[in-house]
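Hi everyone, sorry if this is the wrong subforum. Our group has a chain we'd like a structural model of before ordering constructs, and none of us has done structure prediction before. Sequence below.
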Amino acid sequence: MAEQRGQKGQEHQRPTSFIVRLWLEPAPEEGGPGRWRGHIRSVQSGEDAYFQDLREMARFLEEQSGVPFPLGTEEGAPAGTQNPEQPQGG
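Answer:
Right subforum, don't worry. Here is the predicted structure as tokens:
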């Protein structure tokens, strides 16, 4: 990714913009929970992806920007973002 030099020789990354659309799909069965879905597009590259959880969206953001996406610590992460291979606190 290209960098720009600011005042006093500081390096800054160029802004990277994304358009994200989220929606809740109805449950496939009566009374069941719905499912969140999403779509993300990079304004600069035009590349896009559909996702079903925040890890997939974070992966796309990391690929496009080269910067890790902060989902938070395992304990402090939003619901549904914890690593499914690790037990949740308790």
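For your construct planning: Residues 27 and 33 are 5 Å apart (CA to CA). Confidence is low (pLDDT under 50) at residues 1-7, 86-90.
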